[in-house]
């Protein structure tokens, strides 16, 4: 029983990490209709920025979040303006461009760090917290709490505020939104910035957990794709729940099957979701088709 | 974009209809002879023969990708899987059964086709970027499986094919023989795509790319057309993987499933040369492979990943400024000049 509970808890906490990475990806995806293959690399860059803040400037990684997230917001705006905006209606070229960014960021960081793995000094990852008699990793618990808060805040933002309503309008029908006076281009820009800032938050929170490597983005991005497809394109609660489910599946299959088959498990989740419910748990039915209709 | 490409497709279709098969083959044979010139100049130099062997092989593989990715518009990032299946099958058949690789490429191609059909059937209900993600996920899943099933693939340690030179082993001492081999393979693939392009299936593939719904309403069996295109593409990719296996003779999952070096490379080469053109992938490969080799040599030692930084920049810039590729821009310019003369 205790093993089961331990796997359950570690699955939920892992799911929190996946949710955190997926929410930004899914927001960008639902609104801007761009699949940002480089989203994992955004997280990686944010992790290194946090590492820099902590090691050279002596800022606590959780305080560095307030530096890194705005930085990533600006970075996201720059990328959207220079690379993605000109390719708005060319899905194939978007794939090339964001994949090019992926290769570019990954290897630039490899060149800068000269391939050495780094990790934050200090003993953040060894802090254990007692929850109902079970030992829980403190840093992962923080991730879970923050991602729950972010999901809630984003949902409120999308429901209650004017920019949030504009974003939802664009998700539903960008043409109609434009006719209602929504500045669609600015909504894209805002959303991409938000998605990048979320990658910044993820980077700051994950830096104490993982050993930093230029390739770490690849660890997140596939899981995040599985989450997005499972949860539903463009849905914040979908990405949150989907992340938890994928985390749980991975944790249980890692214990009962084999951790080496992690990617294969993601893939099975992915295909099963596609076949059984292509629009995902919380996505709009038909979104998998709508997502590709050229909307000008 | 759609209307202009449609018009473009229309004119080329009308022109190619009036061209006999012999003229067509002759025309591409001429172009291929031109692609053979670098080999004729440098065959004696093992360094260049090696680069050309790679360039021709990747030209052939990009041509194969182009069948479904360019003509069919189905942006696959999972061709590394068919490539790896081809490589592993040829290696296993050669090592375990002693089958000559010249014959082993055929069962390898058949297996790649079978797997392609099995994984395409569910994923073809997705369009554009969704399809791309799904195929990328397939690539990563197969990477994990290849690492896991080490009795078949040698796992992370890989398979080592011993060096036993001989024609029937498809292992040669001289590099230029490999270059000649991959050149021959490339020629076959180019001629297949040239014939395919003006066949009924070729036109169907283009129709599906331009507008799936219109194609369906015009009576095209969309799924069948996509599956046929994918089957042909995967079979040729599998054969290419087999040839690659006999050339490098060391097969491990990180090499075969590396996205920037294999799966995405096919697409990148096609993009640079011209997606959906017949000679585009050849031009792209003859340009990219030597450039990358040069960068790897000059930057690789000084800056880790340096050549990939340049590759990433090329990819982004090509997506932004060279959407039709070199061949696409070239034929476009020729057509403009010709039209101006006529009017």
Write up what this structure looks like.
The complex is a heterodimer of chains A (296) and B (343). Chain A has one domain (2-290): ABC transporter involved in vitamin B12 uptake, BtuC. Chain A is 72% helix and 3% strand. Chain A contains twelve helices and two strands; from the N terminus they run ααααββαααααααα. The model of chain A is unreliable at 289-296 (pLDDT under 50). Chain B has a domain at 21-259. Chain B contains 16 helices and two strands. In chain B, helix 3 runs antiparallel to helix 11. Classes of the chains: A mainly alpha (296), B mainly alpha (343). At the A-B interface, helix 4, helix 9 and helix 11 of A face helix 6, helix 13 and helix 15 of B.
> What fraction of residues of chain A sit in β-strands?
under 5%
Query: What is the distance, rounded to the nearest whole angstrom, between the alpha carbons of the first and last residues of chain B?
Result: 23 Å
Count of discrete alpha- or pi-helical segments spanning 4 or more residues of chain A = 12
- The low-pLDDT segments of chain B are 1-11
How many DSSP-defined strands of chain B? 2
Instruction: Report the average pLDDT across residues of chain A.
Output: 84
CATH-defined fold name of chain A:
ABC transporter involved in vitamin B12 uptake, BtuC
CATH-defined architecture of chain A: Orthogonal Bundle
Just give the CATH class of chain A: Mainly Alpha
């Amino acid at each position: 029983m205790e093993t089961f509970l331990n796997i359950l808890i570690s699955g939920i906490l892992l799911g929190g990490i996946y949710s955190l990475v997926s929410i930004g990806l899914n927001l960008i995806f639902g609104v801007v209709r761009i699949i940002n293959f480089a989203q994992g690399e955004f997280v990686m860059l944010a992790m290194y920025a946090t590492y820099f803040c902590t090691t050279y400037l002596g800022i606590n990684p959780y305080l560095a979040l307030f530096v890194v997230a705005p930085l990533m917001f600006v970075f996201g705006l720059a990328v959207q303006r220079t690379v993605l905006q000109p390719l708005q209606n060319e899905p194939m070229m978007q794939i090339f461009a964001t994949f090019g960014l992926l290769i570019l960021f990954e290897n630039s960081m490899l060149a800068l760090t000269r391939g050495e793995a780094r990790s934050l000094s200090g003993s953040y990852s060894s802090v254990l917290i007692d929850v109902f008699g079970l030992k829980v990793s403190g840093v992962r618990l923080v991730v879970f709490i923050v991602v729950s808060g972010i999901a809630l805040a984003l949902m409120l933002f999308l429901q209650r505020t004017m920019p949030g309503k504009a974003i939802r309008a664009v998700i539903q029908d960008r043409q109609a939104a434009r006719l209602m006076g929504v500045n669609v281009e600015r909504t894209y820009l805002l959303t991409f910035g938000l998605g990048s800032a979320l990658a910044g938050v993820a980077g700051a929170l994950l830096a104490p957990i993982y050993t930093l490597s230029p390739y770490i983005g690849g660890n997140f991005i596939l899981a995040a794709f599985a989450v997005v497809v499972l949860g539903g394109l463009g849905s914040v609660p979908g990405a949150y729940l989907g992340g938890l489910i994928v985390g749980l599946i991975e944790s249980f299959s890692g214990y009962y099957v084999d951790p080496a088959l992690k990617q294969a498990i993601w893939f099975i989740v992915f295909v099963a979701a596609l076949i059984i419910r292509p629009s995902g748990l919380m996505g709009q039915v038909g979104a998998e088709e709508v997502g590709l209709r050229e909307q000008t | 974009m759609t209307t202009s490409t449609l018009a473009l497709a229309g004119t080329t279709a009308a022109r190619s209809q009036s061209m006999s098969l012999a003229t067509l083959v002759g025309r591409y044979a001429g172009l291929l002879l031109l692609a053979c010139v670098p080999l004729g100049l440098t065959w004696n130099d093992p360094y260049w023969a090696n680069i050309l062997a790679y360039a021709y092989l990747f030209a052939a593989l990009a041509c194969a990708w182009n069948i479904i990715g360019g003509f069919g518009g189905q942006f696959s990032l999972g061709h590394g899987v068919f490539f790896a299946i081809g490589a592993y099958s040829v290696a296993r058949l050669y090592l375990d059964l002693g089958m000559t690789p010249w014959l082993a490429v055929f069962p390898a191609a058949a297996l790649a086709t079978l797997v392609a059909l099995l994984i395409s059937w569910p994923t073809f209900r997705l369009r554009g970027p969704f399809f791309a993600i799904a195929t990328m996920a397939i690539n990563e899943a197969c990477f994990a499986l290849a690492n896991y099933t080490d009795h078949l693939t040698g796992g992370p340690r890989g398979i080592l094919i011993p060096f036993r030179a001989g024609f029937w082993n498809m292992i040669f001492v001289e590099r230029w023989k490999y270059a000649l081999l991959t050149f021959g393979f490339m020629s076959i693939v180019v001629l297949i795509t040239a014939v395919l392009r003006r066949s009924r299936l070729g036109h169907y593939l283009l129709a599906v790319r331009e507008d799936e719904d219109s194609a369906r309403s015009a009576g095209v069996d969309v799924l069948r057309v996509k599956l046929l295109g994918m089957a042909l593409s995967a079979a040729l990719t599998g054969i290419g993987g087999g040839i690659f296996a006999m050339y490098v003779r060391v097969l491990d999952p990180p090499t075969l499933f590396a996205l920037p070096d294999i799966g995405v490379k096919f697409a990148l080469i096609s993009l640079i040369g011209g997606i959906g053109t017949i000679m585009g992938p050849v031009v792209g490969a003859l340009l990219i492979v030597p450039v990358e080799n040069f960068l790897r040599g000059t930057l690789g030692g000084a800056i880790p990943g340096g050549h990939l930084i340049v590759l990433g920049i090329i990819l982004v810039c090509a997506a932004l400024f060279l959407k039709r590729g070199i061949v696409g821009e070239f034929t476009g310019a020729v057509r403009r000049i010709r039209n101006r003369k006529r009017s």
